[in-house]
Structure formats: structure tokens, C-alpha cells
Amino acid sequence: MSNPAKPRLLTGDTPTGRLHLGHWVGSLENRVALQDRYECYFLVANSHAFTTRAERPDEIRQSVLDIATDSLAAGIDPARSAIFVQSEVPAIAELTFFFAMLLPFNRVMRNPTLKEEIRDKGLGDTYPFGFPLYAVGQTADILAFRPEVVPVGEDQLAHLEMTREVARRFDQLYCGVDPATEDDAYVARGGLFPVVKPLLGRVRRLPGTGAPGPDGTLLKMSKSLGNAIFLSDDAATVERKVMGMYTDPARKRATDPGRVEGNPLWIYHETFNRDAAWVAEHEEAYRNGQVGDVAVKRKLVEVLNALLEPIRERRRALEARPDTVIDVLRDGTRRANAVTEETLALAKHALRQDFLPRRKLDLG
Ligand code: TRP
User: Fold this and answer.
1) Number of domains the chain is built from
2) Mutate-to-test residue for ligand 1 from 19, 133, 156, 223, highest number of ligand atoms within 8 A of CB
3) Do 293 and 327 share a structural domain?
4) Any idea what DSSP says for residue 356?
5) What spacing in Å lies between the alpha carbon of 215 and ligand 1's midpoint?
6) Which contiguous run of DSSP H or E holds residue 40?
7) Can you tell me whether residue 298 is helix, strand or coil?
């Protein structure tokens, strides 16, 4: 675990429900693969979930357990990687306060991801103070681990940019790093925090199984839009969702020429079907009205269920040992605290506020 040769990786999720295929291609498959090369820390951002659901704590609690279960079922190996609970890592909250002083208020409010969320979730001007604060908190989630890479979806890039600004500002102000320093060289020049790099997933935006939005563009797969295939769906549910999915609305029968571009059925095949020759051949046949939707959907059911079956099997094993998830969170949180307490001590030293060195945190 504490193999010093391995650089650290940090990423996380706000617990808003079970994970689906969009999470898988956007990030999860990447995480599973990166466990070999990095010492991985996967944060469950339960404190952030209170920004929009403060009145539903039970739901947030359940979502934390669901995300941890889904991650383990998907192949995160708890012997190597830490899955941890944000609210049990006090260094994150403490760093948030100091980092909040390094970002002008107007800079935070200009963060495009926050603006989009305010618009898309219809938050108007009624959102809590903690809503913009979460973006500052996210800079602390990340920098507390001084990671080499941060795998995220495209929607998180604005938060990563803010994180990079905090790192530069802190290192310049408190570690004497020259502002002319290249981003890659901050730590080598005496900075505490690296100017972190985002790592995008293979697929940036997987459409859902439903019809497009009012402007004709395909909607992103999302639990709240009811267009998701979940990692926890059983084989029959996957079949029902795929057989009922939106394809080319202009196509009435199998002999009509079909549209491949922008057709979710083909986007899914291109994303999940490893048999590229099959896909190319059948796309051609589809264009020429030589293969029906039903046959192509059946094949997709097969492909998706083959992907999900090992995940289901690991889930069954987890369900047979109900304490596993909480044990994994306890161990992961202990490991996260070991790293972040060290960062916090170094940060307080740099801030000249290292009056009372702290003893070890007592957890679980
Ligand atoms: N904001 C991220 C999301 O909603 C979750 C998150 C919180 C995160 N802290 C993070 C992601 C730190 C990467 C790094 O998906």
C-alpha cells in the first residue's frame, strides 16, 4: 500500500445514487486500470451531497454505501486502493478554510461548473452558502493528497483549474516559489502542492437510453433523467432497457435505411462492443436496410451483460458479507487520514501556524 515508488491518484464522486454505464466509461474503468500504476484514493464526497440535499440525510447515507459497493463490485481492489468518507477526514475541512482565503469570492462565483449547476438544477438565488463553498472544498479534497493525477469527467475541469490556482498561490505565498515557475516544477522549486493535472476518461459523455431533449441533442445518461443502465441492473432489466431504447425514429422497418450517426444504439456498440469488425460490418448493413434494430439490440444486450456479469458476481460476494463495505470504508479512511494529516502539518508549517503539533487521529 504505502509503496513510495507509486505516485498518488485522487478522485471522487458525490453520492447521488447508484453508478451506471456513464460512470463506467467516464471514469470507473479508468480507475480500475490505474490501480496498478498509482496509489489510489477514491473519495465519497458525502459532505458535498448536503449542498443540494441537506433535508435528505438518510438518502445521502444510503448513497455513500451504494457508491462504495458499486466501486468494489466494479473491480476497485481495497487491498491496494483506499475508498474513504470525506466527512471523516478532518484535514480536508481544515485546508478548505485556508484555501478559501486564496480565492477571490468573484473568482469562485465565475466557476463555469458552478454556474451550470445553478442553471441546470434550477437553484436560482436560493442556494446555500455551502454550495459555492463546495468548489473550494474540492480543491482541498485534491490537494490534501498532493496527487500526481486526478481522473475526472469533463464537467470537473473548472474545479481542477481552481485547484491549480490554489496550488500556485499557496506555493508562491507560503513556500517562496517564484511566480514565473512552470506548472510542472512547483514541487521541485520548494512548493508544497503540485499544480495537478486532470486525466479525462475514454468517453466524455455517454447518452442515455431515452429520446433526445427538446433541442434534438442526446441527453447524457443520468439517474435523474431516468435513462440510465445501472451497474447493479440484473440481466433481465438490461434486456428490457436495451430492447426499449431510443434509436433512429425515422426507421419504421428493418428494410428502411437506418441512421448510424448520433444513434445511441450505435454509440453503445462503438463504446462497449470489442468486436470492431462486427460493429463496422453491421453499421454498414444498418445504413443499407439489411439488418433490423431488434438484432442489433439483441447483440448489445449480450455485450452489456458480458461486461456486467463479473460485476454482478462480485456484488453477490459482497452481499454475502454485509460488513465488508463498512470495513473497507474504515480502512480507506484511516489511510486517507494518514496522508492528509501529514499534508496538513506541512501546510500549517508553511502558513507559520504550526503551534501545536497534533497527535495521531483515532479512527475505527
Ligand atoms: N464534484 C465531483 C462530482 O460531483 C466529486 C468530487 C468531490 C471530486 N471532490 C472531488 C472529484 C475531488 C475529483 C476530485 O463528481
Assistant:
1) 2
2) 156
3) no
4) S
5) 29
6) strand 39-44
7) helix
Could you tell me the CATH number of the domain that includes residue 280? 1.10.240.10
DSSP 324: H
Is residue 210 included in any domain, yes or no? no
* Whether residues 134 and 268 fall in one domain: no
Calculated CA dihedral for residues 8, 9, 15, 17, nearest 10 degrees = -130
Instruction: Look at residue 222 and tell me if it is in a domain.
Output: no
**Residues 251 and 343 reside in one and the same domain:** no
Residue 101 φ/ψ, nearest 5 degrees: -80, -15
Residue ranges making up the domain that contains 70 = 8-205+321-350
> Ligand 1 pocket by C-beta < 6 Å: which residues?
10-14, 43, 45, 48, 138, 141-142, 150, 152, 156
| Cα–ligand 1 centroid distance for 160 (angstroms) | 10
Beta bridge partners of 220: 207
pLDDT per residue of the chain (364 residues) written in tens, 0 to 9:
455 679 999 999 999 999 999 999 988 999 999 999 999 999 999 999 999 999 999 999 999 999 999 999 999 999 999 999 999 999 999 999 999 999 999 999 999 999 999 998 888 989 999 999 999 999 999 999 999 999 998 889 999 999 999 999 999 999 999 999 999 999 999 999 999 999 998 887 899 999 998 998 999 999 889 999 999 999 999 999 999 999 999 998 889 999 999 999 999 999 999 999 999 999 999 999 999 999 999 999 999 999 999 999 999 999 899 899 999 999 999 999 999 999 999 999 999 999 998 887 777 6
- Cα 77 to Cα 87: distance, rounded to the nearest angstrom: 22
Q: How far does residue 45's CA lie from ligand 1's centre (Å)?
A: 7
